[in-house]
Amino acid sequence: MVKPFIPQLVYIEPRALDYPLGQALKKKFEKMNIEIRETTSHNQVRNLPGNNDFQKYRIAKSTLVVGVRKTLDFSSSKPSAEYALPLATGCMGHCHYCYLQTTMGSKPYIRTYVNVDEILERAALYMKEREPEKTRFEAACTSDIVGIDHLTHSLKKAIEFFGERDLGELRFVTKFAHVDHLLDAKHNGRTRFRFSLNDEYVIKFFEAGTSSLLDRIEAAKKVADAGYPLGFIIAPIYIHDGWQDGYRQLFETLHDFFPKPINEPITFELIQHRFTKPAKRVIEKNYPKSKLVMDEEARRYKWGRYGIGKYVYKKDDEELLQETLEGYIHTYFPDARLEYFT
Asked: Are 89 and 60 in contact (CB under 8 A)?
């Protein structure tokens, strides 16, 4: 089992120590004998150790920066939520295909924000503006928040915050199985806990540093038993030799753990593999020996929002992917809700 994340190096903004969580994290890391450095801003961490870009990238992925989230305007999130909930940025996983490779750019270190009360107060204002409609918040747009929450408990606080509010819903997704501290949270069914899953080939070759498939599914079972609404994101759906068998085995394994419908229908979100030209350059730099195939000739170019295009599978391949995965869902989880395929 992948051990819970422990940073090798910690940076703290001086302002973070004005908050109880900042002080508590400083004491925690001092007790753990982790080196602590000061930084003027979580956006300006300089002089990370390492002799070259390759080393610096890997050290950054094991570095935690404790800061204050100054901009409290929330961005609009993905189709599954109205707003992002900015509790953290960055991830300790080494998923070769991840879009954070480019969105994080030169700042691949992990950031956690200690002004959680202020962030949640802003969420309450957004909910007020949209009354009487419900407002959904996504807490994992720029991070795998579960991966660090055993250290901060910021997510647990957010879960209980939304548990007390009729017009707010929280959701997030993770590739980590370290969920035990979240099982007793008073969520009142208002947080959908989602796990990102893939077949064994993709996890083995492209998802280094994350929990195994079985560990994730076992954690999902714990979460469902704790009464959380549960969802799975199958992403990125990736064509490789034997992919149809690989994904069928994934659904068979999942069905072994969830042979009967649970109280709240399980949701599935399906996302095919895609990449941009800038992402391809960054991935090839950070993971030069990756087996990830990004052949532009074998893909079709799809214009996205904001004028940024990406390479997705050609129509015939895309239709086969969708038909195959949706078929598995219909066979193994006929009571589930398919949110989308993209």
From this structure: no
Question: Exposure of 78 by Cβ count < 10 A (0-12 exposed, 13-18 middle, 19+ buried)?
Answer: middle
Give me the amino acid identity at 233.
I
- What is the 3-state composition of the chain as percent helix, strand, coil, each rounded to the nearest 5? 40, 20, 40
Which has more confidence, 321 or 262? 321
Question: Residue 57: which of 87, 88, 94 has the closest Cα?
Answer: 94
Longest dimension (CA), the chain: 56
Q: What is the dihedral of CA 239, 242, 245, 251, to 10 degrees?
A: -40
CA angle in degrees (0–180, nearest 5) for 248-254-257:
145
pLDDT digits (tens, 9 = 90+) for 129-138: 999 999 999 9
Residue 99: pLDDT band with limits 50, 70, 90: confident
The Cα–Cα gap between 194 and 173 comes to 5
pTM over 0.70: yes
Q: ω before 236 within 30° of 0 (cis)? A: yes
Average pLDDT rounded to a whole number, residues 256-279:
94
Strand 88-89 vs strand 110-113: parallel, antiparallel, or unpaired? Answer: antiparallel
Name 55's Cβ contacts closer than 8 Å, sequence gap at least 6: 49
- Cα three-residue angle 90-94-97, rounded to 5 degrees: 90
| The one-letter amino acid at 158 | A
State residue 54's pLDDT score: 80
